[in-house]
């Protein structure tokens, strides 16, 4: 029972950390309608950025805002140079462009900054918190809290004046233009915000497993989270993340010894497949998908 | 000038329906075929085995995928899994004592049946969701191949292909393996060009352009989509088997991973969706351009002209590959086929700038 409880809690916390990665995806999809398959690579780049700033000798509390500013600018540049020219192109072009960006970043960033795993020390104690028989990893715990805070901040942000503009853009591009909202700038800002979300994700994941190219592999669980929660739903990310994390930890916890390892990928794949087959728009997504 | 149109009259429907209407095109194709067929005589074994042979096989794979993505408009990000099914099926079938020719066909059929299951997702969703569904299936097939010892022979095992012969031609020499691969690629090319002008091909195009409209004019979307997945998976399965027997000769699951699927989609897109010549050019470009560019830059680095670290050099192919995908999508979304077409049109009227029509 303690084993199950431990799997449950660590799964839920891991899932919330997946939600951090997925948040950037949703932010961009919600405003621009662009599936950003480079979000994993963006998280990796952000991890490297945090490591780079910290290697200048700056403390953590200064490094993360600076890295956030860098990634905000990076998101703006990516949107301006690449995605803006893809408006009106079929989805395969956009998907492939973001995948191309993913491959490019996965080569460029470790190629310049070094491919050996880089440590990020956030000052979090490695000793687990012990409640009864259950061990809780502190990094995941803080990650989960950060995810909840960030999702809350994103929800609050969408209530502000700028956030209302972004919501208008996500509803309809042409009508937003008609009432004087700059759709281009709104989409650019959403890319920047995705970059900022990536910094938090990159710092936390980087501190738990080291910064190297494997951070970009977070894309796959993040995609499952997004599909399950609904591609355009911010609060869906939380529940989707917890579900993907719990199922992806509890089931392998019992099956890995039987089926021979890495059942986590299978669970993630099955979540994606079943969601698409049963309810393509996810738990909280808007049902505007065109059926056949 | 070079593609002279004067003197070519189409006086019958038959003449107008030919595959290559302009004589120059026809001669070019014949010349290329002769060059390709005699390649083992004048290309050194090193280049034949490590550049030409994979290029021919991947062209066949790109052709199989472009039938689905280019003609039928169904996105597929798990095509490497289909090829893996073909490769593993063919090895196990030949090991069970079935003749190679028949096991090629059977492995194609097995891949086609499982590939049609992939297509099941396409009956319900399209676009981004189809990408995600096929991606998930790629991971599922990967996992099954790795974790069922009966298929892969264990988690990290390599499975050697048994020695076989194709129609009395033993496949132990490089030239024989090259000829088999070339024969299959040429067969697929001819098939693809003919599918494009058959009723099936036109049904696929109708589905791609708008499935509701296609249904209205009497094309059954259900059947046509499944047929598209079936046909393309059959082609992909046999190509996977040929890849295993003619090129790798020892298969591991990593050779058919998710990255390979992305690479196939990149080949199709860089070449130009739904284009025959684009598949050949795209496969060659995606496969060889990163290698050649990396070699050039490594040579420059060795002379000390460009100061780059070893770490940078080892990541260079990935960078070039990613930059290539981005560059083509931004600058020439219609791919190499469009570039070839532009050059051809230029020479059609050369030395003049414009044709009268």
Automatic annotation (TrEMBL), chain A:
Residues passing through the membrane, by range: 6-29, 60-78, 90-109, 141-158, 186-207, 213-231, 238-255, 267-285
Keywords: Amino-acid transport, Cell membrane, Membrane, Transmembrane, Transmembrane helix, Transport
Protein name per UniProt: Amino acid/amide ABC transporter membrane protein 1, HAAT family
Main subcellular localisation: membrane
Localization terms from the record: Cell membrane
Name of one Pfam family that matches: BPD_transp_2
Coiled-coil residues: none
Molecular-function annotations in GO: transmembrane transporter activity
Membrane topology category: Multi-pass membrane protein
InterPro entries per the UniProt record, alphabetical: ABC_transp_permease, BCAA_transport_permease
GO cellular component labels: plasma membrane
Species whose genome carries this gene: Paracoccus laeviglucosivorans
Lineage: Bacteria, Pseudomonadati, Pseudomonadota, Alphaproteobacteria, Rhodobacterales
The organism's place on the tree of life at top rank: Bacteria
UniProt-listed CDD domains: TM_PBP1_LivH_like
Keyword Kinase: no
Protein family: Belongs to the binding-protein-dependent transport system permease family. LivHM subfamily.
A GO BP annotation: amino acid transport
Automatic annotation (TrEMBL), chain B:
Membrane topology: Multi-pass membrane protein
Any one cellular-component term (Gene Ontology): plasma membrane
Lineage: superkingdom: Bacteria
One annotated GO molecular function: branched-chain amino acid transmembrane transporter activity
Subcellular localization: Cell membrane
First and last residue of the signal peptide: none
TM region positions: 27-47, 53-72, 104-123, 130-151, 176-195, 226-250, 256-278, 285-306, 318-337
InterPro entries per the UniProt record, alphabetical: ABC_transp_permease, LivM-like
CDD domains documented for this protein: TM_PBP1_LivM_like
Presence of keyword Ribosomal protein: no
Record keywords: Cell membrane, Membrane, Transmembrane, Transmembrane helix
UniProt feature coiled coil, ranges: none
Protein name: Amino acid/amide ABC transporter membrane protein 2, HAAT family
Natural source organism: Paracoccus laeviglucosivorans
């Amino acid at each position: 029972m303690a084993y199950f409880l431990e799997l449950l809690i660590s799964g839920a916390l891991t899932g919330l950390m997946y939600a951090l990665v997925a948040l950037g995806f949703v932010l961009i999809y919600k405003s621009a309608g662009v599936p950003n398959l480079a979000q994993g690579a963006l998280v990796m780049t952000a991890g490297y950025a945090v490591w780079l700033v910290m290697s200048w000798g700056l403390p953590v509390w200064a490094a993360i805002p600076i890295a956030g500013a860098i990634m905000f600018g990076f998101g703006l540049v990516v949107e301006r140079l690449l995605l803006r020219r893809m408006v009106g192109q079929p989805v395969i072009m956009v998907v492939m462009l973001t995948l191309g960006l993913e491959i490019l970043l996965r080569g460029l960033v470790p190629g310049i900054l070094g491919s050996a795993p880089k440590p990020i020390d956030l000052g979090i104690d490695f000793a687990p918190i012990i409640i009864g028989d259950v061990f809780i990893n502190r990094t995941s715990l803080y990650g989960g809290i950060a995810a909840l805070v960030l999702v809350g901040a994103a929800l609050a942000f969408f209530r502000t004046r700028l956030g209302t503009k972004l919501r208008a853009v996500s509803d309809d591009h042409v009508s937003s233009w008609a009432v004087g909202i700059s759709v281009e700038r709104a989409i650019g800002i959403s890319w920047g915000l995705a970059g900022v979300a990536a910094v938090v994700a990159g710092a936390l994941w980087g501190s738990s497993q080291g910064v190297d190219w494997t951070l970009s592999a977070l894309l796959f669980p993040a995609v499952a989270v997004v599909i399950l929660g609904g591609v355009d739903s911010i609060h869906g990310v939380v529940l989707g993340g917890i579900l993907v994390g719990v199922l992806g930890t509890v089931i392998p916890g019992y099956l890995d010894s039987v089926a021979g390892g890495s059942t986590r990928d299978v669970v993630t794949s099955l979540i994606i497949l079943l969601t698409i087959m049963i309810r393509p728009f996810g738990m909280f997504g808007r049902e505007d998908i065109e059926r056949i | 000038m070079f593609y002279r149109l004067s003197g070519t009259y189409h006086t019958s429907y038959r003449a107008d329906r030919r595959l290559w209407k302009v004589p120059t095109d026809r001669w070019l194709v014949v010349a290329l075929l002769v060059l390709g067929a005699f390649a083992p005589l004048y290309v050194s074994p090193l280049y034949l085995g490590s550049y030409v042979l994979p290029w021919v096989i991947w062209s066949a794979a790109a052709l199989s995928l472009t039938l689905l993505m280019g003609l039928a408009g169904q996105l597929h990000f798990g095509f490497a899994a289909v090829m893996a099914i073909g490769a593993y099926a063919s090895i196990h079938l030949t090991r069970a004592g079935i003749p190679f020719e028949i096991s090629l066909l059977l492995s194609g059929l097995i891949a086609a049946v499982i590939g049609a299951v992939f297509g099941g997702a396409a009956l319900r969703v399209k676009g981004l969701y189809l990408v995600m569904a096929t991606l998930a299936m790629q991971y599922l097939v990967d996992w099954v191949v790795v974790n069922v010892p009966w298929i892969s022979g264990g988690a990290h095992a390599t499975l050697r292909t048994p020695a076989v012969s194709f129609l009395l031609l033993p496949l132990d020499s490089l030239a024989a393996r090259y000829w088999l691969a070339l024969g299959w690629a040429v067969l697929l090319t001819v098939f693809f060009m003919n599918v494009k002008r058959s009723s099936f091909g036109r049904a696929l195009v109708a589905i791609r352009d708008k499935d509701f409209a296609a249904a209205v004019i009497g094309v059954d979307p259900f059947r046509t989509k499944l047929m598209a997945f079936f046909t393309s998976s059959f082609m992909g399965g046999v190509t996977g088997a040929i890849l295993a027997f003619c090129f790798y000769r020892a298969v591991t699951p990593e050779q058919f991973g998710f990255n390979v699927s992305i690479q196939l989609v990149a080949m199709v897109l860089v070449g130009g969706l739904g284009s025959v010549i684009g598949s050949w050019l795209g496969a060659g470009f995606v496969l060889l351009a990163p290698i050649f560019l990396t070699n050039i830059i490594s040579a420059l680095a060795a002379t000390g002209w460009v100061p780059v670290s070893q770490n940078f050099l080892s990541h260079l192919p990935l960078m070039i590959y990613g930059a290539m995908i981005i560059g083509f999508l931004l600058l020439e979304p219609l791919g190499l086929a469009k570039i070839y077409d532009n050059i051809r049109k230029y020479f059609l009227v050369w030395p003049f700038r414009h044709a009268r029509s």
